[in-house]
Amino acid sequence: MAKASHSDRAVGVFDSGVGGLSVLLHIRRHLPGEQLIYFADSGFAPYGEKSDEVLIERSLAVAAFLLTHQIKAMVIACNTATAAAVATLRLRYPELIIIGMEPGLKPAALHSLSKVVGVLATKSTLQSQKFNQLRDQLSLETKVNFISQACIGLVNQIEKAELHSAETLQLVRRYVAPLLAQGADTLVLGCTHYPFIAHLIRQVVAENQPNAKPDAIRLIDTGEAVARRLHKLLEQQDLLSGRADTPILLACTTGSPGSLEHALQHMLALRADQYQVSALV
Questions:
Q1: Going by C-beta distance under 8 Å and a sequence separation of 6 or more, which residues neighbour residue 211?
Q2: Is 252 among the residues known to form the active site?
Q3: Which domains does the chain have, with CATH numbers?
C-alpha cells in the first residue's frame, strides 16, 4: 500500500518563469498519467542575471515549497538554476529524484559536421563551473569548437509572450548571425525558454543561408532527454503512476497568474479545464 501511495504522488517542475513549460510539454507526452505541479518563479525572473548564491537560496526555497506537496521527484527545468544549485539540492534531499538540465553539448558535438557549435544561453549558465568544465572536456575529446553566446534580454521577451515581435527577432538576429558567420552548423538551445522562439532562429538561419537546406542547421533541445530520464528513474524505483487518465496540471507562480494562464493556453495549447493556476506571494 505504501508503494502505491508513493507512486500516486506528484512530480514537481520549476523554472524562473514560463521557459520550463518546454520541458513540461515533453514530460506530459512521455508520462501522461503523472500528476504534475509546475512552479513558475516569474516574480524573481530572470535567473540568468543573478549570482549563484542567490540562485541556490531561491532554488532551496522553491524545493521546500514543492515538498509540502509530497512530490516524488523534482525537475529543475532551468539551465541556469541547474548549473548553480543542482548539487546543493541533491545534498539537501538525497532520497528525492532530482533531475536537472544538461546543456546539450554532447549531442551537439556528435551531430556537428563542421566541428563548430554555437551555444545560446544565459550569462549565468555560460559562466558556471559546471558548463565550462563540460565544454573544455568535450572540446579536448571531440576537437569541436564551442562558441558561447550570452543572449541578454531574450528571456525577458519570452516571458512577455513576445514570441513573434520585431524586437525579439532583432535580438535573435544579433545573437545567432555571428555564430553562423563563424561556421556553426549546430546550435544548442541552452535555456529552456529558447525552444519557444525556435521559429525565429530558423528564420534568421534562412536569412543568412538562403541556399541551405531547411535542416542544414541542427537545433539541440534537451527537454525530451529530461523526460526520458525522468521516466527511467521513476520506473527503476517503481514510482510510475498507474493512472490511465491525464490529471489536471497544477501550476503556481510568483508573478502574474494571467501571464501564466496565457502561456499555458498559447505555448502548451491547454484548455482552461486542463489546468489550475494559483498565485503565490
A1: none
A2: no
A3: 2-102+223-279 (3.40.50.1860), 105-220 (3.40.50.1860)
